[in-house]
Amino acid sequence: MTTPTGVVVPESDGSTGPAGARSTSALGRAVATDALARVDPVGAAATLRETNWRQGYVGPFRRLVEAGLPSEADAVSIARAGLAALHDRMTVVTADGEVPLADVFVEGPAGVERPLHTATVTGTGRARARLSIPMGGTRLEGDALLHQLDDWSDRGILEPSAADAVRTVVAEPERLRLAGQRVVVVGAGAEMGPLRALLDWGADLVGVDLPRPDLWRQLLAIAEHSAGRLTLPVTGGTGTGPELAPGAGADLLHDLPAVADWITGLEGNLVLGNYVYADGATNLRVAMAVDALSVELRRRRGDDVSLAFLATPTDVFAVPPEAVVQATHAYDDTVGLGRLLRPVFRAASGGRLLKRNYAPGSDPGLNDSIVPQQGPNYALAKRLQRWRATVARRDGLGVSLHVAPPTRTRSVLKNRALAAAYAGAHRFGIEVFEPATSNTLMAALLVHDLTSPRPALRPPWQEEADGAVHGGLWRGPYDPRSALGLAVVLGIGGARA
């Protein structure tokens, strides 16, 4: 087996896994245990005893939210402890040996790096004068977009606060240019990222992604034809367009100190937007690399760095009582064949299928939309971003974090079970978005956040619920996992198509 390099999961000391093994399961269990230890010692002990982490992680990840609901202090304590547990354990394998993650920024042990220089592409296109969102082969703007926002809100596809925020951007399109701000899009080529939309609106962006010439040819062509400006790291090459591609990009897992130095030298108020994704354990490693980068940039640049994230809808969230009421009504008002068949499915499954989304009157409700097949590495990579958002707000940084809708991205469609579930989800009140609709809508929410006064601190669960676009998972009649199996069965034909 090839020894990993760059940002890596630590070797186990034998207390939570085979000694010497680099086990993401051992890491995840230890981090969840540490995060719960002060607030919920019983839950921490149960987490530590979980022997089959790949199957049993769902309960502890639910508990990490539940245990923080009684008080804001408890939620913040869990977030700080979880982040500390990760940063204390993750390491970096360099040419000079293995060092703690924080030490990679210290001059000396970082090993050989590619020196990064700056290139800029200024687009020649005209900025879109109004907000428009692609959907169903057309672009919605003006009254058509407002009607769509009303429809999504009425059907419980998004939180009313999300619709209100987008309506503000519709009414004040001058916000779209993000004057005076530079968004650093880490994961510039991500399907869910805002790069294309923000460039179309004339924004000033910084793009960071892997040094893959094919990827950068696409991104540079987008920038050239846009109304915005794209600044990027390069190791070589000249020009202002696609000819830069062979030397463009940087690998966060291996070039983290160089990326930190390069971004530190950029001018202006920066918004570090985290849109990275990778398969398997690499996703956790790169998520930690971006988190370490955010910590280091705050240390170097102070408060002129803000943070932006997209939270996955397939996680555990506390939801407002209004969502509970709508979900309860949807369950009680089910008519036709669904109402007739529901008792049959419930009885045949021992009550596991088509359960209520919440106990009536819950305040807040707890929505558990984790899809176990996505695995504990994905769950931890996304949860650490929520923890960072909670902590950063309390440390005085601006933060934009919104729950993004279920979306037919390439990574989802590669998983046959998830692809089938998404194809059948509409039968249970869940709307699955196309990537272009999702990323433009979420970019509009980012614009709203960056051009609005910073909101007052609230309990973390309320901050996370604000502006959420959950696709109906929060306000539908059924507990999402209790409908997942049926959605897969019903969606198999659609997924194949």
List the helices and strands and how they pair.
Layout: E1 6-8, H1 24-36, H2 41-49, H3 53-56, H4 58-66, H5 72-89, E2 91-94, E3 97-100, E4 117-122, E5 132-135, E6 138-141, H6 142-154, H7 160-171, E7 181-186, H8 195-200, E8 204-208, H9 213-224, E9 229-234, H10 252-264, E10 269-274, H11 281-301, E11 305-311, E12 316-319, H12 321-332, H13 337-348, E13 365-368, H14 375-394, E14 399-403, H15 410-413, H16 416-424, H17 435-450, H18 460-465, H19 480-496
Parallel strand pairs: 7-8, 7-10, 8-9, 10-11, 11-14
Antiparallel strand pairs: 1-2, 2-3, 4-9, 5-6, 12-13
Any overview of this molecule?
With 497 residues, the protein is of the alpha/beta class. It has 19 helices and 14 strands. The protein folds into two domains: 107 residues, no CATH class; 271 residues, NAD(P)-binding Rossmann-like Domain (Rossmann fold). The strands form four sheets. It has a seven-stranded mixed β-sheet with strand order 4-9-8-7-10-11-14, sandwiched between helices. A three-stranded antiparallel β-sheet has the order 1-2-3. It is globular, with a radius of gyration of 22 Å. The two termini are 38 Å apart. About 1% of the residues have low confidence.
